[in-house]
Amino acid sequence: MLIDEPGVLPNSEIHIFNPSNPALSALIHIPFWGEYHCAPPYTIEREQYDALLLFSVHSGQLELAYEGQTTLLTSGRVQLIDCRKPQLYRALGDVRFDWIHFKGGSSQVLYDCLAEHKATGFIALDQPELANEVSRLKQQLTMSPDDDWAINLALTRLLTVMIETAAGNVPLEHSLVTQAHVYMTEHFREDLHLSDIARQFNVSLCHFARQFRRHYKVSPHEYLINLRISEARRHLLLTGESVEQIASVCGFHSTSHFIRSFGQRTGVTPAQFRKLKF
Question: N or C: more exposed end of the chain, with fewer CB within 10 A?
């Protein structure tokens, strides 16, 4: 797509996504992202935009003014900002970078956790594991742009690994709960209980639950149920599976438990939700 913005050079690309209704309602999703080659006078200044923004700079320099500070984003820099706050960024000479707007799901909770520990940016050469997660995300966006669930998992994995990496500067309990968060995201479809998670990380259930709530502002039980409900919504809208089948594949131990949990969080039964028009 031709981009008519001052300073955006002709070999730049913007990718517009159309997330499904289940993704819009329950998952971290991407409305659009870009691969930009820019030069002065490229400048973006916003007071507010309803999304988070990820920068990945490949060469050159961007100047970012955000939250009262000016930061130079150089080659290899990966940076997150919350666009609901005023921001300004501009090209300082020739610069190539990717940008990704995303929102929804657990994105704001995870970003706030990163911001709390001043861990919203890193240099790829210094953090190869994180750089690999960024590469995985871009590969996912390029190869399977319509796979909403895989995009949600890729973004969740990147954000949680960023939190886990920051654990070198925060208490051990923080590393534990971020690892547990990733584990829950990957295994919630199974017959998973909180006691299993606590055992997996060699801590007491009480300690695990207390630390998880402290860092994510929600109980691990509620988070696990919400993961299963989000997946159930996707199955209800996109498959012809029965309510009993969906309860099983989403990790609920019984159909009645699924129906009760779903109703408490959505205000409708699974059967009623399936009939809704979006």
Answer: C
